[in-house]
Amino acid sequence: MSQNHHNDREPIFRMVKRAELPDRQITLLRLSALILALAAGGLFILSVGYNPFLIYGTILSGALRSPMAIQATVKIIVPLLITSLGVTLAFKMRFWNIGAEGQIIMGAVFASYFALFHADWNHWVLIVVMAAAGMIGGGLWGLLPAWFKANYGTNETLFTLMLNYIALHIVSWLQDGPWRDPGSQGFAKIARFDKNASLDKVLGVHFGWMIALALIVIVYVYLRYTKQGYEISVVGESQETARYAGMNVKKVLLRTMMLSGAVCGLCGMIQATGSDITLTTGVTGGVGFTAIIVAWLSQLNPVTILIVSVLFGILEKGSSVVQSSFGLSTDCADVLQGIILFFVLGCEFFIRYRLVRRKKRAEDRGEGGGR
Predict the structure, then answer these.
(1) What's the pLDDT tens digit per position in 297-310?
(2) What is the C-alpha separation between 159 and 162, in angstroms, rounded?
(3) 203-249 tens-digit pLDDT
(4) Against a cut of 0.85, is the pTM above it?
(5) Helices 67-92 and 249-270 meet at what angle, rounded to 10?
(6) Closest C-alpha among 154, 109, 145 to residue 267
(7) What is the dihedral angle through the alpha carbons of 137, 142, 145, 147, rounded to the nearest 10 degrees?
(8) Helices 330-352 and 302-326, packing angle to 10 deg
């Protein structure tokens, strides 16, 4: 009786962790998810009165149809790629860094100081100093929640998230006060940087894309082949194991979060001096949150992050072309992106877990008992 009563209280369905699936099966599941995502997206496009093939074709051609379109797509990919690499360092250690937005902003703020007040320095000295300042700004903003976590056990998800808003308000304060452009008419803004303080272009795009490609190699080697990278993995798996192996968990935590913030801060410097050529409250463009999705979709693999970032860049640039070509609202483009993400993320979930029905389990137990 009590057994039956207990069974009634169990949920009908529950999630159970899967055994590791073979690579071929995982690839097939991901391809199926992508096809389903495109099909569901196609149905949505059809429901708002457009031809799905035409819209998908426009997304692709809009992102890649000309050298100018490719350059614009690359400009979208660069910050997303760098930020994804930054948060990957923290996520490998199971430290939930949701503060990439704030770290990008602080990197941009630190770099902008030199761009605004030391623009007369030698160009390359200034670029190097701004890059270092950006990394320090982002690194310190990342170190702050790590220090509180290590010493007081604070919740890093909430802490890093709140720091995003503080960083944003620092830029608003600078814009309205100390760094306000005296020549700004009507609304407050920070002056455009001098040409000497902006990143040079290589193949029509600021050379931030070269830094991004170099970072893929650096992060990959760091995580895969260095002692510090190994320590990050062990701490991520189990802090107790790491302590037992003689590792200084607190030191690993602080060092890794400073590095994670520094990479995001470098992205801030690149955005401010390469893309915007000034400091604004929109310096992040929302990549801090999108990067979290990219990092997880890529299984925290730096090489896969490049592929996923390129796909996201094409989708974003192509969607903006669809908006202007067909008069579709931004909401429709966002819904389409959301549908594709829903299926792809859902697939990642079902690669790790499977749905089990209670009734079937009860029957199995009964059969087992009969035998």
Answers:
(1) 888 999 999 999 99
(2) 5
(3) 999 999 999 999 999 999 999 999 999 999 999 999 999 999 999 99
(4) yes
(5) 170
(6) 109
(7) -90
(8) 150
